[in-house]
Design brief:
Elements: H1 7-18, H2 24-31, H3 35-47, E1 51-58, E2 66-74, H4 79-90, E3 95-103, E4 107-113, H5 116-130, E5 134-148, E6 161-165, H6 175-184, H7 192-199, H8 203-215, E7 219-226, E8 234-242, H9 247-259, E9 263-271, E10 275-281, H10 284-297, E11 302-316
Antiparallel strand pairs: 1-7, 2-4, 2-5, 3-4, 3-11, 5-6, 5-9, 8-10, 8-11, 9-10
Length: about 325
């Protein structure tokens, strides 16, 4: 890690991850620095590619979309061929998340769809693109998820989280709202004035619809894409198959993970895995300690598990243009 960050930098990152639309002045009040110093530090974090972008989180279930996660194991493919394949997958609008990994699975991704027929079409298109490079694949369906704010290295214990479920009443968006979402999809910090100029719509109209999207919980948050490797952390995925359990016990598991200092993302799913956890640790031994901690506390719940080391998060996009 070339750029050394301190406690103030970590607090700034945490504030941006709670709400990346927060102004430098608002962040300054929270971290105890001047606006100018906060602006300077953010610029350095961006320059050193610790902060990669600011994305808007949409509760896709409110738009009648479901989410499925796909795990790909590749074969007969070299580095250049894999890069070309990932570039093709990245261009698919219905792909919401795409990352590479080390373990049983080489690629993790998610697919948005309006119904099972559309999902089947998208999956077949994906498999056709992968062709003979596919050795094996598995799929799971999203039920609910919890995403917490950045917390590594921070002393404070209170962290916010964004929760999503698959059971939501569908909301109809108008053209202005769709265009606003597209504008801030990969730049959540974009100002209302800039959105107004781009869409040729008055500022007060943009402000009204943005507030409406937040009030109706269509937009559930504005987060920061962080390169945790530059903060000295590795990113692991723990994929768990539950034994026979009650909804209450599963709720206890999710609640425990939600408060854990090293667990950032928790999904509840149907399929080969019932839960996947994103875990940030400094060493493999530290990951092993987290694993044993979970196995000890939930020995009745965890039947089997697999692990993966995640690398490049190529894509994270909650707003598929064509499906809006």
């Amino acid at each position: 890690m070339d750029y050394k960050i301190d406690e103030k930098d970590r607090k700034i990152i945490s504030q941006l991850d709670k709400n990346s639309r927060a102004t430098d002045s608002q962040i300054a009040k929270e971290v105890g620095l001047s606006k100018q110093v906060v602006s300077y530090r953010i610029q350095n974090l961006e320059k050193n590619k610790i902060l990669l972008n600011y994305h808007t989180i949409l509760d896709v279930a409110t738009l009648g979309l479901s989410t499925n996660y796909i795990f790909l194991q590749l074969q007969k493919i070299n580095k250049k061929q894999e890069e070309e394949l990932l570039e093709k997958i990245n261009k698919l609008d219905y792909i919401g998340w795409l990352t590479t990994s080390l373990g049983r699975w080489d690629v993790f991704l998610s697919i948005y769809s309006k119904n099972i027929e559309q999902y089947n079409y998208f999956l077949n298109e994906l498999l056709e693109i992968c062709g003979d490079y596919i050795h094996e694949y598995e799929q799971i369906t999203h039920i609910s998820s919890v995403q917490t704010t950045y917390k590594s290295g921070l002393k404070e214990q209170n962290f916010e989280s964004i929760e999503q479920t698959s059971n939501k009443d569908k909301v109809q968006l108008n053209k202005i709202e769709k265009n606003i979402l597209i504008e801030i999809s990969q730049n959540a910090k974009k100002s209302i004035v800039e959105i107004s100029n781009n869409l040729k719509i008055p500022v007060h109209t943009i402000n009204y619809h943005l507030k409406k999207l937040l009030k109706n919980k269509i937009i559930t948050g504005f987060k920061t894409k962080i390169d945790v490797s530059k903060l000295g952390y590795s990113w692991y995925s723990l994929m768990i198959k539950f034994d026979k359990s009650t909804p209450q016990r599963q709720h206890e598991f999710i609640s425990y993970c939600k408060k854990h200092k090293q667990i950032y993302y928790i999904t509840h799913t149907i399929g080969i895995y019932n839960s996947t956890l994103d875990i940030h640790v400094k060493t493999p031994r530290e990951f092993r300690e987290v694993l044993f901690e979970l196995k000890e506390k939930f020995s009745d719940l965890i039947k089997i598990y697999e692990t993966a080391l995640l690398f490049d998060e190529i894509k994270i996009n909650y707003i598929p243009k064509t499906l809006l």
